[in-house]
Design a protein that fits this description.
This protein has 192 residues and is mainly alpha-helical. Helices cover 78% and strands 0% of the residues. The radius of gyration is 17 Å and the shape is globular.
């Protein structure tokens, strides 16, 4: 267990909790988290996960802006549902990217779990994109990804990170509940 993993654990829990509570501060907190995990995953030879953290640096900056200015009239974004066609397209794109990345990792690196690594990476990108748009379906993707990540990190001996993803899983359930309440409030008829 490295100091990077310990600090990443703390910032990761805080970032997901802030996301569940719809706080835009989830994004800068997440930026610290992903920066720390770039080092953790490099050391563990989980290269797709490491690359994902690099992508997340940009996504955190974009998500922060989107949540503050991506709503109606340039205001704050509210929770909404993704169109069905978008979800189907994202699911298919995730599968295709997972297969291609897995093959590249298998053939071109010493990655220890190339296809598990690529699948969690691909669908984390899907979940993250939905999160930047404040789509409630993000939580279902995160739940599925976190279940797989717990196993991957346990196999790699990253016990603190496996625990982190178990906590993320619980926070995803909280986030789903909180965002559902928010969504229901957004859809409620306006009282006269």
């Amino acid at each position: 267990m490295s100091p990077y993993e310990i600090a990443g654990f703390v910032f990761g829990v805080l970032a997901v909790w802030l996301t569940a509570k719809e706080s835009p501060w989830c994004w800068p907190t997440g930026l610290v988290n992903v920066s720390l995990y770039i080092v953790v995953f490099w050391q563990a030879k989980l290269y797709a996960d490491m690359g994902l953290q690099v992508v997340y640096v940009g996504v955190c900056i974009y998500g922060w802006w989107e949540w503050l200015h991506g709503g109606a009239g340039g205001g704050r974004l509210t929770v909404s549902r993704a169109p069905r066609r978008t979800l189907v397209a994202l699911t298919i794109a995730g599968a295709a990217f997972a297969a291609l990345l897995g093959l590249a990792l298998h053939r071109g690196t010493d990655a220890s779990l190339p296809f598990w690594d690529s699948t969690t990476t691909a669908y984390s990108l899907v979940a993250q994109w939905l999160q930047t748009k404040k789509r409630i379906e993000t939580w279902w993707f995160w739940i599925a990804v976190d279940v797989v990540y717990i196993g991957v990190y346990a196999v790699k001996g990253l016990w603190l990170t496996a625990l982190l993803y178990a906590i993320f899983l619980a926070l995803c359930l909280l986030g789903l509940r909180e965002w559902k309440r928010s969504l229901d409030g957004n859809l409620a008829p306006v009282a006269a």
